[in-house]
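User: Continuing from earlier, I have the next pair ready.

Assistant: Great, send them over.

User: Here they are, in order.

Assistant: Folding the first of the pair now:
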Amino acid sequence: MKIIIIRLFDFLLKKQIKEDNSMKYLIVGLGNIGEEYVDTRHNIGFKIADALTEKGKTAFKSGKLASMAQFKYRGRQVFVIKPSTFMNLSGKSVLFWMKKLDIKKDHLIVNVDDINLEFGKIRIRKKGSDGGHNGLKDIQNFLGKDYNRIRIGVGNDFHKGQQVDYVLGEWTAEQKDALPAIIEKVVNANLDFVFRGMHNVINAYNGK
């Protein structure tokens, strides 16, 4: 009888762990650490992450390879990270936190800037190329091409050879005025991903 009870307890514990895993999500905002990068186009992923923590009424805490915050949303456990490895080494941070938190790959979504999209437009994909983005390139080295991502358009108003200066440059006054509405839209897309799933989010937000 005692053995049966122990086995039943082990079964229920494993079942609970599995259920918990199915209700956990990891949202990543890409950017570069340091005050000089705070308001640059390349750091819009960090802006999204910050806005998510405000929505969840929580705050970031420093951790290994990233700052991490967590909150509950409609019964789901949401973890948000901002890698502290600089953009080019984002993959190491993402993989570490996926393993540490036991997050399934299809419960991961990455927020990143994209110069190939018009300012303010978003494109949501389940997989794809890195598009020349160093952060995505490094994540791809660790996870492959099949992971969820939200690309946020920052425009491409620069001359040949000035791409780095552009993405590491600050927003124009006009762009700053428009940012809050764009950030709110992307935050809602992330939360809908958590609650409604990737398929519904793609249909609802792509190209908006």
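And the other member of the pair:
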Amino acid sequence: MRDSSSSATDTARAAGRTVALGMAAIVLLLGATGVLLFLNLPSAGAFNARVESIFVENPLTSQAEVRLLEILALSGTAFSETLRSYRVVIFVLLVFATALLLATLVILVMLVTLNRRMSEIERAGIQVTALVIDRASRKVWLNDMEFTLTEAVVETLAALAEARMDGEVLSGAEIEGIVSGRSATDCDEAAGATRIKRLRDALGNQIVSELLVKNITRQGYVLAIDRKAIRLA
């Protein structure tokens, strides 16, 4: 089975390829659209060329006709300038649309990658490199996070840690028996479940605590930590 680092690397590479292909597809699509659009737009000098052909094909003699032709020529010039400005506006809009689509693609890929990574974390459990429990000061260090807990919560966590070091799974009744000093047969399963809930609440982050203290159906509770990372003081 591949380790988590290899899986993360493969995921990052797949996401990178997806982003590159998506960007290329977007650029090609919008580029083709822009080319077709500009090819189908009328030429800026089309109107003036038409007016010139009218002048060549139809000899104008009266002053009014010549004046009308001049007005048409001026209108053609105005039309040409307007069409040039439209081309610039269309080009800017295409660039803006390309940027928005690329940004949207990157965000979507980031969300997909994050969701996959969260799924991997949920399957593998929280990555804990060090768990230090100091009963005397009622302090717990989880990686680089420090917690000050009540004595009962510290004892609950210590019981789970000792069981994890021995490769055991504790039921709710066994947890209650260890913390209270009574026999597990005289303890209620619900009392141990209540202690687990208080431990999770004391750790604060619900996601982290749920991944740290796992509930195995019909067996009991166990810390999802490498036993070599646990230290009791």
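Worth noting for the second one:
The radius of gyration is 37 Å. The longest strand covers residues 131-134.
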